[in-house]
Amino acid sequence: MEVVWSDLAFESFYDILLYVQGFFGKKTADGIAAKIISFVESLGSSPYLGKQISHLSQYGEIRCAFYKQNHIYYQTFDNKILIIILWDGRQDPHQLQNLLINFLTK
């Protein structure tokens, strides 16, 4: 399956990398970026790796996969996977829910 990143996914990924770079340096951020990208791309061959999010089922098949403390929310379609958002699990979960609902109701 083709893996497509939403603008929100790119923005949230960038925010995570800025945070990591600020605390641990560019080399660490670059390494984490490569690992997250590889993991996200692997969803194309394993689209059901993530757990289905039942409370969002009215918006389609929304799943969440975990890479370390990062949550990758995505939506599956017949021939593609749309990466919705990447979320650091240490952030406010209420803000995540608001971002997901806003994205899914556009």
Task: Note down, in words, how this protein is organized.
- By secondary structure, this protein is an alpha+beta fold.
- The protein has one domain (2-104): YaeB-like fold, CATH 3.30.2310.
- It has three helices and five strands, in the order βααββββα.
- It has helices at 7-24, 26-42, 93-104; strands at residues 2-5, 51-52, 62-67, 70-76, 80-88.
- The chain has a five-stranded mixed sheet, with helices on both faces.
- Strand 3 and strand 4 (70-76) form a beta hairpin.
- Helix 1 runs antiparallel to helix 2 (26-42).
- The longest helix is centred in the first third of the chain and has 18 residues, at 7-24.
- The radius of gyration is 13 Å and the shape is globular.
- The mean pLDDT is 95.
Mass-distribution shape:
globular
Q: How many strands?
A: 5
Q: How many individual helices?
A: 3
Order of helices and strands: EHHEEEEH
Biggest beta sheet attributes: 5 strands, mixed
Give the CATH superfamily.
Answer: RelE-like
Helix content: 40-55%
Quick overview of this protein structure:
It contains 3 helices and 5 strands. With 106 residues, the chain is α+β, with helices and mostly antiparallel strands. The protein has a 5-stranded mixed β-sheet, sandwiched between helices.
Question: What topology emerges from the helices and strands here?
Answer:
Layout: E1 2-5, H1 7-24, H2 26-42, E2 51-52, E3 62-67, E4 70-76, E5 80-88, H3 93-104
Parallel strand pairs: 1-5
Antiparallel strand pairs: 2-3, 3-4, 4-5
Helix pairs in contact: 1-2
Key terms:
alpha+beta, YaeB-like fold, 5 strands
